[in-house]
């Protein structure tokens, strides 16, 4: 691209090292805390690497012994999986027909902007009536209630992503099939949806990560093992009287593992999604 | 097929989404407006109509004004830092060096880390007794004794902003990097031949390609930062001495901790209005910028 002086090259490498250190250090430290003994973590000066690797906290948090710290943690993982799974499926289900309709019908495309605009709403603007409504329906502290609430975030979001996905599938393919006498449901089922499968998968993944990450509504609308999600469980640990910081770190590592793995494996798709829409704060 | 039928068909296909949106967004929003004119409690009393009392109390109160200043400061400083560091990181990642692919891959890490985990992680790093920041700064001799970074009103908000920046600047970097990769090589080559220095090259050759995507990132990040709740709740709960109490935290306390649904709703609507003004102003800005290039 340009001729590089040795000085410039040295500067580039030094900056790259700095950037790598800034990104990696906090994450590595979280991991090191999770495998250090409590004594190492409270030592002064601090032991930056444990004398002995201690994996016991992973066993503790993932044990399903009744009434143990592990049972509560495992329950919260399952709650998060259930809530995020249900909310994602429901969001995709309502988003597919609307995203297709908006993509193929210019006369209604303004409705998409109304949908996207709701995405800007602060959750506090909806929280009080949602709380009262869920209480009325008996859906407070329920994974179904929370999944329903998550549609406020996931439904507009997936519609937006799917719409741009459908936009990239040429209309002409559908028109050709229509001329050949195919009905609309056949066209969608046999032609459009299979072509849109990759976009639908990416959208579902994004939606799942958003729900997995969600904290505000989960904090408000869940209160115990029956519905408390992972994010609330971790915030409880961090803000509670747990004296073993390694245990908090271990919970953090376990909660971060699925999204981080998805992030690293799906990098290309995620980055193109991120950069085209600039999604997720 | 006629145009009206196609439009009708589109609305029919959108029906499930519209029903969901009305149930979980439209109705709650309208009900928040209604509640904001009442003295309803969260549980129990329905409340009676009190007109604009809630708004008058909220807008005149020092809590709101202080939270507005805190929120604005948090949003402006963290978003500015994220944009500057993000663009610098993107310029670096656009250079040729060994390990570039791996470093680009690493950038996804802070973004993928759940917000609550990020907040927890930094809370541990800032820990006053055993935290890594205290340990590191003491060991290299920058401070003599351990400090309570999140416990002092003077440092808590800055500590929060750093934690927020760390999580969000990589996203800006990835967006900027994608834009940089779209700059045609022959244009940069031509500017070199013409003798443009690095600064002019950035200003006149690269910036036009960066401006659009960065503006979008700026809009979305500012709105997100203005709504900030999670990271603050987990790290400081708005303390110490309310020095990190942003608007969203204030609404939470009013409506849920103190169970004053009515005034909580009016506060929430004021926040919504401010976010809307931001969004509309930015949309105009984006359209103007798009028209200019």
From TrEMBL, chain A:
Domain of life, per lineage: Bacteria
SUPFAM superfamilies: MetI-like
Protein name (Swiss-Prot/TrEMBL): Sugar ABC transporter permease
Main location: membrane
PANTHER family linked: INNER MEMBRANE ABC TRANSPORTER PERMEASE PROTEIN YCJP (PTHR32243:SF18), MALTOSE TRANSPORT SYSTEM PERMEASE-RELATED (PTHR32243)
UniProt membrane topology term: Multi-pass membrane protein
One Pfam entry name: BPD_transp_1
GO biological-process terms attached to the record: transmembrane transport
Domain ABC transmembrane type-1 as annotated: residue spans: 77-266
CDD domains per UniProt: TM_PBP2
Alphabetically ordered keywords of this record: Cell membrane, Membrane, Transmembrane, Transmembrane helix, Transport
Cellular component GO terms held in the UniProt record: plasma membrane
Membrane-spanning segments: 7-32, 83-103, 110-131, 143-162, 187-212, 245-266
Compartment(s) of residence: Cell membrane
UniProt organism field: Ensifer adhaerens (Sinorhizobium morelense)
Family: Belongs to the binding-protein-dependent transport system permease family.
Automatic annotation (TrEMBL), chain B:
Entry-linked CDD domains: TM_PBP2 (cd06261)
One Pfam family hit: BPD_transp_1
Main location (coarse class): membrane
Membrane spanning stretches: 12-30, 73-93, 105-125, 156-183, 204-223, 265-285
Localisation: Cell membrane
Domain ABC transmembrane type-1: 68-286
Domain of life: Bacteria
Coiled-coil regions listed: none
BP-aspect Gene Ontology terms: transmembrane transport
KW rRNA-binding (keyword) present: no
Membrane topology of the entry: Multi-pass membrane protein
UniProt keyword list: Cell membrane, Membrane, Transmembrane, Transmembrane helix, Transport
Family the UniProt entry places it in: Belongs to the binding-protein-dependent transport system permease family.
PANTHER family, sorted: BLR7065 PROTEIN, SPERMIDINE_PUTRESCINE TRANSPORT SYSTEM PERMEASE PROTEIN
Protein's name according to its UniProt entry: ABC transporter permease
Native source species: Ensifer adhaerens (Sinorhizobium morelense)
């Amino acid at each position: 691209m340009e001729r590089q002086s040795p000085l410039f090259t040295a500067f580039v490498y030094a900056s790259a090292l700095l950037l790598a250190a800034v990104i990696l250090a906090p994450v590595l430290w979280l991991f090191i805390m999770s495998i250090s003994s409590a004594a190492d973590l409270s030592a002064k000066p601090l032991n930056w690497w444990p004398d002995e690797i201690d994996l016991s906290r992973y066993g503790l948090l993932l044990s399903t012994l009744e009434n143990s710290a592990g049972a509560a943690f495992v329950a919260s993982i399952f709650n998060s999986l259930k809530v995020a799974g249900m909310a994602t499926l429901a969001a995709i289900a309502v988003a597919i027909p609307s995203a297709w309709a908006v993509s193929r019908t210019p006369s209604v495309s303004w409705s998409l902007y109304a949908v996207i605009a709701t995405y800007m709403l602060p959750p506090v603007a909806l929280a009080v009536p949602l709380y009262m409504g869920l209480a009325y329906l008996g859906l407070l502290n329920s994974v179904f209630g929370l999944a329903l609430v998550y549609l406020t975030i996931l439904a507009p979001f997936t519609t937006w992503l799917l719409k741009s996905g459908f936009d990239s599938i040429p209309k002409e393919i559908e028109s050709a099939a229509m001329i050949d006498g195919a009905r609309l449901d056949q066209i969608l089922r046999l032609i459009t949806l299979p072509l849109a499968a990759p976009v639908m998968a990416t959208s579902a993944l994004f939606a799942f990560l958003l729900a997995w990450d969600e904290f505000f509504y989960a904090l408000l609308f869940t209160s115990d093992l029956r519905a408390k999600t992972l994010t609330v469980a971790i915030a409880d640990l961090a803000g509670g009287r747990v004296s073993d910081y390694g245990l908090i770190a271990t919970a953090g590592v376990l909660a971060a593992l699925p999204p981080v793995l998805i992030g690293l494996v799906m990098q290309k798709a995620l980055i193109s999604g991120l950069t085209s829409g600039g999604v997720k704060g | 097929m006629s145009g009206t039928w196609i439009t009708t068909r589109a609305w029919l296909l959108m029906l499930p989404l519209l029903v969901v949106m009305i149930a979980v967004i439209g109705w709650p929003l309208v009900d928040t407006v209604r509640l904001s004119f009442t003295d309803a409690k969260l549980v129990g009393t329905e409340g009676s109509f009190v007109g604009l009392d809630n708004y008058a109390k909220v807008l005149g109160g020092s809590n709101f004004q202080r939270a507005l200043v805190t929120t604005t400061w948090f949003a402006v400083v963290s978003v500015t830092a994220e944009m500057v560091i993000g663009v610098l990181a993107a310029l670096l990642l656009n250079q040729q060096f060994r390990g570039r692919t791996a470093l680009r891959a690493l950038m996804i890490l802070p973004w993928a880390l759940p917000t609550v985990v990020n907040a927890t992680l930094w809370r541990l790093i800032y820990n006053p007794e055993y935290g890594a920041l205290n340990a590191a700064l003491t060991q290299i001799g920058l401070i003599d004794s351990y400090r309570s970074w999140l416990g002092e009103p003077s440092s808590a908000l800055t500590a929060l902003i750093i934690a927020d920046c760390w999580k969000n600047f990589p996203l800006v970097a990835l967006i900027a990097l994608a834009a940089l990769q779209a700059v045609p090589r022959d244009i940069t080559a031509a500017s070199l031949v013409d003798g443009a220095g690095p600064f002019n090259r950035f200003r006149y050759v690269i910036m036009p390609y960066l401006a659009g995507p960065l503006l979008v990132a700026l809009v979305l990040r500012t709105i997100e930062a203005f709504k900030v709740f999670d990271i603050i709740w987990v790290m400081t709960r708005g303390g110490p001495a309310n020095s990190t109490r942003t608007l969203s935290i204030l609404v939470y306390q009013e409506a849920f901790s103190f169970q004053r649904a009515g005034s909580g709703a009016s506060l929430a609507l004021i926040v919504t209005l401010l976010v809307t003004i931001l969004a509309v102003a930015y949309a105009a800005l984006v359209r103007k910028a798009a028209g200019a290039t």
